[in-house]
Amino acid sequence: MNQHNLTRRNFLKISTSVAGGLMIGFNLPTTAEAAAGDATEINAWLTIDPDNIVSIVTPQTEMGQGAWTSIPMMVAEELDIPWESVRNVRADANRHVNNGDLYTTTSTGGSTTVSKRHPYMMQAGASARERLRVAASKRWNVPLDKVVAKQGILTAEHESSGKLQGTYGEFAADAAAVTLEAEPAIKAYGDWWLLGKEVKRLDVPAKTNGSAIYPIDVSVDGMVYAAVQACPVPEGKLVSYDFEAVKGMPGVIAAVELKQVKDIAAFTDLRSAVAIVAESWYQAKNALAVMPIVWDFGRGATISFDSQTAEALSLLATPGTLLKDEEGNIGKGMDKGVNHDAVPDLIASASKLVTGEVYSRPFEAHATMMPPCAVVDVKADRVDVWTFTQDIARSLSEVADQLGRDTKTVFLHQTYLGGGFGGGYNMDVHRQAAAISESIGRPVKVIRSREEDIAQDSQRPPVWGTYKAALGDDGLPIALVTHFVGEEKMPVFSQRGVANMPYLVPNRRHEYGAVKNHIPIGYHRAPGANSNGFIVEQMADELAQAGGWDPLDWRIKMTEGIEPWQRVLLAMKEKSGWTTDMGNGEGMGLAIVESHGTIAGCVANVSVSRRGQIYIDKLQYFINSGYVINPLGAHEQAESSAVWELGHAMFGGLQLREGRIVNTNFDSYTLMRMPDTPPVIEVNLEMSQDQWWGGLGEPTGPPTPPAVANAIFYATGTRIRTTPLSKAEL
User: Fold this and answer.
1) pLDDT of 571-581, one tens digit each?
2) Three-state secondary structure call for residue 715
3) Taking the CA of residue 653 as centre, how many other CA atoms within 13 Å lie in the half-sphere pointing to its CB?
4) Alpha helix (H) ranges present in 189-280?
5) Among 467, 380, 361, 365, which residue's Cα sits nearest to residue 421?
6) What is the C-alpha separation between 647 and 725, in angstroms, rounded?
7) What DSSP string describes 664-678?
8) Residue 142 burial by CB count (10 A; 0-12/13-18/19+): exposed, middle or buried?
9) Mean pLDDT, to the nearest integer, of 464-488?
């Protein structure tokens, strides 16, 4: 299938011309209103050309997750059009922003493209199909129930004319004038003809033949390049710089100070920095590297990961802020006037008490394949933008804000994205490019060096955690207190997967504390669940072992009655070949974590050499997201998320010293290379298919590190309580 890009001018011609075909604007319900069947979440545009080609405008960025395939699939399913007749068209951010959020959201993340938006996109196809049927019914003068729309063809039996037939394209103009009395219902699972089948992604050909365009590929007439440096200690400010020392270097054009407006800027605000503009990016980078710069490092200069760890340990030694206190099953008891002293009393009087040692995970960077980049061309009457973003509308509005322009004059051009993982949400690179272009009066491309990218990234926050549990006579916990410490800016990350863990402990308490932090914090693939799962799922193994339970049987027992979890755990027991006794430096470990509405289990086979080298021989995944629309895409995303998270857990870990990240390139911030990738990765889809949809872009990441760590324990008898795992003393 081919990509088909319409210019805004051509799109408007098609959408306003009756002869040009059918253009449908459809209103779709919000998530909260979806069940009630009213209101909308997304406004999108669907065109049907006279030659029976369907063009679907998709507002989500394609960053490797397959959005530009899944959205056309959902529409094609309901429209009932041959897959080869479908084209993807990139959304116009300007039209969206300046027409009351035309598409409702252009946000790309949270594994929501299918899980949250499928009713609305499928409704668009169903609406188009019904309008085509009405148009054919009127032209042929046959009852509507006699008209069939299937695979791009309309057919009916006429009393005198016999069998009638026409393409969707032939009736598109008539259908454009049809108003339905009521929108049709979308298909139920089991009635799908396309969804649920393996479909190859539309972006693969362009990405393999070199024709795919990323922001870093964009070139504009008269364009120059800029390298930018912000304070190496986040929240610090620029004091002065000496451009005279470098202005004679080859290619150097100018220096531009980027002024921070707010005292403490949000990550999407322009932060205090200085840029060198040159004829090439390397000339700009080299000049910036030697230009004398004076910084005011601010409060962060006294903060290190060691100081944060010391503070965290101190906080863990005393009661934290109470976030959850229950008596009864998970999800119940909060409104029952429970005795808040029940849990500590049970812990204090326990005949068998299990106390966990402190687990932790450090800061982690996104380290996307393409470093952040933006091209901006500021003219008197318009501004053009190409940028690294997971939300085209938000980035457009940020550029307009930076320049003080009306959003009607700003045009953001959607491109492919070289990875996102949440990093495309928290970025000021387009603000930087806009400010520089306005200052020098020329189009400019800003590229962040890998060092600047990692140093200034919105990092995954660190976490420290421990627990205490009282065990009953059956070896199962009757009371559990978890205590986690995170950073002060986004404490919600320290709750995910902990406060709402599925294990049915009768008495349950979760406490939280926060350490001082100046490092920008952002979303990372499966945020919160990624780090917390490492702690919770090793805790589960420790509790099972303390009570004399097999770790898999313990999890099955502790989730009795919770069908989505039971489905995954029972499949793991049936299909994985599970055992805790492999011997000879080999181990099998497991973990199961919920993220983005999907339950994902991992079974890891690990071998450890006599010198302590870790080899991950096999990873098996068992996934329940309720439904899946493209098994091929689901397998790809499962493998991608697993390898991405495993790379951070095995080799990553940012080092914070004197307020700054010091390992800022791949020689010191190591991620997984191809030879390190497990030779066998299996993905099993264990779907409940009972009216709930989870996401698939992130959930296999969180269970991977704890499954590997648990496997290492069975191989060596050593419990690894922090990452990177490769640095453990085995």
Assistant:
1) 999 999 999 99
2) helix
3) 15
4) 204-209
5) 365
6) 10
7) -STTTS----GGGS-
8) middle
9) 94
| Final residue before a domain boundary, out of 160, 178, 209 | 209
State the pLDDT at residue 41.
Answer: 22
Tell me: do 645 and 694 sit in the same domain.
yes
Mean pLDDT lowest among 339-343, 401-405, 482-486: 339-343
- Confirm whether 691 is domain-assigned: yes
The verdict on 681 and 570 lying in the same domain is yes
The 10s digit of each residue's pLDDT in 281-311 is: 999 999 999 999 999 999 999 999 999 999 9
Contact 53, 183 (CB under 8 A): no
689 and 589 together in one domain: yes
652: in domain: yes
| Separation CA 76–CA 70 (nearest Å) | 10
Residues 440 and 563 grouped into a single domain: no
Give which of 77, 66, 234 is closest to 634, Cα–Cα. 66
Q: Are residues 238 and 185 in the same domain?
A: no
In terms of domains, do 289 and 332 share one? no
Read off the CATH number of the domain in which 489 is found: 3.30.365.10
CATH number at residue 252: 3.90.1170
Shared-domain flag, residues 140 and 170? yes
Residue 377 lies in a domain: no
What tokens does 192 get?
A: 């799908």
**Has residue 455 been placed in a domain?**
no
For residue 359, give Cα distances in angstroms to 55, 319, 612, 710.
51, 17, 21, 13
Helix (H, G, I), strand (E, B) or coil at 686: coil
Where a domain ends, among 398, 419, 447? 447
Structure confidence at residue 26 (pLDDT):
38
Range of the structural domain that residue 284 is part of: 215-299+389-447
Question: What pLDDT is stored for residue 327 in this prediction?
Answer: 62
d(CA 621, CA 598): 12
Lowest average pLDDT, out of 180-184, 334-338, 503-507, goes to 334-338
Consecutive H or E run containing 252: strand 252-258
pLDDT at 395: 94
Residues 588/711, Cβ–Cβ less than 8 Å: yes
Reply yes or no on whether the pLDDT at 474 is more than 80.
yes
| DSSP codes, 545-561 | HHTT--HHHHHHHHTTT
With a cut of 50, say whether residue 206 has pLDDT above it. yes
User: What's the confidence (pLDDT) of residue 45?
Assistant: 61
* DSSP symbol at 107: B
Quick: pLDDT tens for 599-624.
Answer: 999 999 999 999 999 999 999 999 99
Whether residue 72 is preceded by a cis peptide bond, meaning omega within 30 degrees of 0, is: no
Percent helix / strand / coil, the chain, rounded to 5: 30, 25, 45
Tens digit of pLDDT for each residue in 527-545? 889 999 999 999 999 999 9
When divided into structural domains, the chain yields a total of: 3
The 10s digit of each residue's pLDDT in 165-191 is: 999 999 888 888 888 899 899 999 999
Q: How far apart are CA 169 and CA 416, in angstroms?
A: 30
- Pair 221, 91 in one domain: no
CA gap 124, 26 in Å, rounded = 6
Structure tokens of 306? 């060691």
Q: For 317-333, b where at least 16 C-beta lie within 10 A, e where not — what string?
A: eeebeebbbbbeebeeb
Identity of residue 38: D
